């Protein structure tokens, strides 16, 4: 298979969203993906490795890796540590059975 034959990620996800189980899991983890994007963006903008960011925040590298994978919801304690160490802000809303970042 050629690279040009592959579907773009957005299309693959959209195709998968037709599956109710996938859609529920995808929607449930939206908050974790939003946090992951903020953490990755911060790390890249500040030219930090996961290990360096972990040291700044007071975590260990595997915790940063898990945050960036967005495979679990971050705890309030973790969000507070990130905010205190980096100045990142996390404004969120718990509604409609889920958690989502909201603009401040």
From TrEMBL:
Domain of life: Bacteria
InterPro entries noted in UniProt: Cro/C1-type_HTH (IPR001387), Lambda_DNA-bd_dom_sf (IPR010982)
UniProt domain HTH cro/C1-type: residue ranges: 39-94
GO MF term list: DNA binding
Name of the protein in its database record: HTH cro/C1-type domain-containing protein
């Amino acid at each position: 298979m050629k690279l040009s034959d592959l579907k773009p990620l957005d299309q693959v996800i959209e195709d998968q969203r037709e599956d109710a189980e996938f859609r529920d899991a995808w929607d449930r983890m939206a908050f974790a993906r939003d946090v992951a994007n903020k953490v990755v963006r911060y790390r890249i903008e500040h030219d930090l490795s996961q290990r360096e960011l972990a040291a700044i925040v007071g975590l260990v590298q595997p915790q940063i890796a898990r945050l960036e994978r967005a495979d679990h919801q971050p705890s309030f304690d973790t969000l507070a540590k990130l905010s205190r160490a980096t100045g990142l802000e996390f404004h969120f809303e718990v509604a409609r059975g889920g958690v989502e970042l909201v603009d401040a």
